[in-house]
Amino acid sequence: MDRLLLLIPTTSYRVSDFLEAAHRLNVEVTVGSDQRQVLEKYSQGRTVTLNFRNLERGTKQIVDFAHRYPLRAIIATDEETTMLAAKASKALGLPHNSPASVEAATNKYRFRVALAEAGLPSPQFTLVSLDESPAEAARRVAYPCVLKPLALSASRGVIRADDAAAFVANFHRIAKILRARDIESTAEVGQHLLVETYIPGTEVALEGLLIRGRLNVLALFDKPDPLEGPFFEETIYVTPSRLPKAVQCMITAATAEAVDALGLLEGPIHAELRVSEDGPVMIELAARSIGGLCSRVLRFGAGIRLEDLILQHALGLPIESLEREDRPAGVMMIPIPRAGRLQQVRGIQRARNVPGVEDVAITIPLGQEVIPLPEGNKYLGFIFARKETPEAVEATLREAHNRLQFVIEP
Q1: Looking at the structure, do residues 146 and 67 belong to the same domain, yes or no?
Q2: Residue 56 included in any domain
Q3: How far is the CA of 147 from the CAs of 130, 194, 195, 213, 219, in angstroms?
Q4: Parent domain of 332
Q5: pTM for the complete prediction?
Q6: Is residue 68 part of a domain?
């Protein structure tokens, strides 16, 4: 039986979705995690503890494991595991993206350099060292601008600055975030910020699957809430897009060009773009699928889930259809309104009773500390809906959210 290795951080939302997909496909699965599982020694190859931080050590651990349990594919489920998947797949001769292409996708500065060298539309950008005087750095950038850590995801630490005073304040704020206990990084990533000019316009997200370098668009999401800063917390995704078809084609073309510039060839990609007056501009492109539980909003062919498509492609199995179902759908990532400890969530059933709502999933346990952006990197949960039109989907998600009440105490 085919065996695949899923690289899943212990903090990931996505374990069950990928395991259920493997079960539907009758595929043997090993879960590679960064923390030892209690029953690992009794699991007969079903779990393995790996070092996600030290890529050389993690690769060797996977190669040693594969000598005992031969692997057909390695799949990264989250941003922090994409580089390890690429390096281990290369070492084992499995289908993979090159480590260099994945590194360009995960490092925001190298991503910008790759696109600029390919002549693709890009904001002005510069790399700023945390050892540098923020006041001096503030004098050599154009405003408005956006300050970003080089490697964090979910918009963590991404802040807009409209003037030099805001730049200095944001510089110190991001530096503090990079010193957080849950962040381990290389010298370049941990000691630098990317500063790029702010791009006005509508933001969209494109979900795709690369097959031998060819981009297959799985879904194009509108983001109806304005993302103008100072923070860039994503909330609602709705598909299909309401943008004109000509603009959608431009978005697809821009994504394909960015994929080529990075050198990505295989597997899922998740792209974020701004549609400016001059056309689409790539904001970020990740060599992984959409994060959180958002993939649950996507269905293909006769009800196939996104995780099924990813596993089928990785294993070289036939794919029935890459066409998303016709019915509009959407997801809301429930934002954290304020910092504190989550004590109670009221109105969950009332939210589920909104016509068109498929589910409301609260993913942060009661009693746990919650931290909003830009310091935090989690959502309170997710709301899923399907209706007859994208407009109706958006309205449904907003109505369901309005019925929820979160009791958060300091």
Answers
A1: no
A2: yes
A3: 12, 6, 5, 31, 29
A4: 327-410
A5: 0.94
A6: yes
